[in-house]
Amino acid sequence: MSIDLRRYCCQNSNCPVYGIRNHGNLSITSLYGENNCKHMLRCSQCKYRFSETKGTVYFRSRKTYKEVDDILAHVKEGNGVRKTSRLVNVHRDTVTRYSRKAGSHSLKLHDELVGFSPLHN
Q1: pLDDT tens, position by position, 39-70
Q2: Domains of the chain with bracketed CATH
Q3: Section 83-111 average pLDDT
Q4: Predicted pLDDT of residue 3
Q5: Which of 7, 59, 90, 119 has the fewest CB atoms within 10 Å, counting from its CB?
Q6: Quick check: 117 pLDDT over 60?
């Protein structure tokens, strides 16, 4: 399974093209994880290697993408931690951990997108 590298950017904050998507500087170096389903990427500018999930809520997750998505879907609908825990069949600390991770990632994305909005008078 191949991925669209245009969606990704270098995750090394010291790289001259850090955070710039679709720059053509990334390549897939290897596969890893259960069933070799995750990609290891490499930046040709700074030679930094990183997981395709770095910078996302899925990074270093032991849960599948679907399990994480299910947890966050219940939280998004306004279900509490304990209710989500019962519905998805995970520990309540797991729900809290992913909620916090998703919140911090959402804040970063918001700041990135709103930072280029026109000023209001």
Answers
A1: 999 999 999 999 998 888 888 888 888 999 99
A2: 5-51 (no CATH), 65-114 (1.10.10)
A3: 87
A4: 85
A5: 119
A6: no
What is the pLDDT, as a whole number, of residue 104?
A: 77
Long-range contacts of 25-28 (CB under 8 A, 24+ apart): 28/2, 28/3
49: its two tokens: 């290697």
User: Got the DSSP string for 82-114?
Assistant: HHHHHHHTS-HHHHHHHHHHHHHHHHHHHHHHH
| CA 36/CA 28 separation, integer angstroms | 13
Q: Considering the entire predicted model, what is its pTM?
A: 0.71
- Other beta carbons within 10 angstroms of residue 57's beta carbon come to 21
Q: Is 8 helix (H, G, I), strand (E, B) or coil?
A: coil
Count, in order, helices (H) and strands (E) of the chain: 3, 3
- Residue 73 contacts residue 87 (beta carbons within 8 Å): no
Structure confidence at residue 70 (pLDDT): 95
Tokens standing for 59? 């990074």
d(CA 32, CA 38): 5
